[in-house]
Amino acid sequence: MPVLIEEKDITVSQNTVLSGFHAVSARLKMDPESISVVYVDPTRKDRRMREMREKLIAANVRVMNADDRRLTGLCPNVPHQGIVALAEEKAPTLDFHTLLDSITEDTLLLILDGVTDPRNFGACLRVADAAGVQAVVVPRDRSATMTPAAAKAAAGAAETVPVVPVTNLASAIMELRDAGVLVVGTAGEANQNIYDIQQNRAFAWVLGAEGDGLRQLTRKRCDELASIPMAGAVESLNVSVASGICLFETARQRRVAK
């Protein structure tokens, strides 16, 4: 049986915090040995928690009891569902030069310019995973990182979708274009919309944060700009919603073409 947590057991600052069933399950499936400890709410005795405990024990992962105060303290402002894991920080699985070398006609990329909200960032990863994106490219110094809030919003996609940070996003876009990728940015004022563009080739969507949108230099480096048709009164969409619309239009076109 798990024992009551003592705060001295694990140093939080040396670990990545994974909050909620999706995030913990994904890491357990991908790399159980990287998990230092999983803290669970002992008052939660439902089937989902019982099954999770069984999986953790079967994988020889350390499980300890923790009350709500402690769980909330590990991931402030992030719903924990009664389960929080501390795990080794995930090393990048793909660098930009390797990405360039792996471009094929089926490549689909998502490039995020200035998405600094961790929940939006995590939600974009979730959408990218669902759409079959090869990698998400972000600026190294102007992007959200994999915080507990981002991992929670990603719902496990943080373990499956490579995030590729680059020092200079504009230069990276040019290198992708040179490698044969059609790079299209989203902009409300564009003369064409996302449905006008043929996407049955190596392709990348570039999206900016809601409100600010794409930076000027990023816009200039794109092959084309396209808008998402808006029928109502709102002028923009959340970046994760916009990412889903764009990426699944690409997926639709490719499915129809087969």
Q: How much of the polypeptide forms β-strand, as a percent range?
A: 15-25%
Oligomerization state: single chain
Count of β-strands: 11
Shape: elongated
Helix content: 25-40%
**H/E series, N to C?**
EEHEHEHEHEHEHEHEEHEH
Mean pLDDT score: 88
Radius of gyration: 20 Å
Low-pLDDT ranges: 1-13
Helices, by number, come to: 9
Instruction: Order the strands across the largest sheet as they lie in space.
Output: 8-7-6-10-9-11
Cα end-to-end separation: 53 Å
Structural class, please? alpha/beta
Major β-sheet, in short? 6 strands, parallel
What is shown here, in short?
With 258 residues, this protein is α/β, with parallel strands linked by helices. Helices cover 35% and strands 19% of the residues.
What does this protein look like?
The chain is α/β, with parallel strands linked by helices and 258 residues long. It is built from nine helices and eleven strands. Strand 7, helix 6 and strand 8 form a beta-alpha-beta unit. Helix 5 runs parallel beside helix 9. The longest helix has 19 residues. The radius of gyration is 20 Å and the shape is elongated.
What order do the helices and strands come in, and which of them pair?
Layout: E1 3-4, E2 16-19, H1 21-30, E3 35-40, H2 47-58, E4 63-65, H3 68-74, E5 83-87, H4 96-101, E6 108-113, H5 118-131, E7 135-139, H6 148-154, E8 163-166, H7 169-178, E9 182-186, E10 203-208, H8 216-221, E11 224-226, H9 239-257
Parallel strand pairs: 1-4, 3-4, 6-7, 6-10, 7-8, 9-10, 9-11
Antiparallel strand pairs: 2-5, 3-5
Helix pairs in contact: 5-6, 5-9
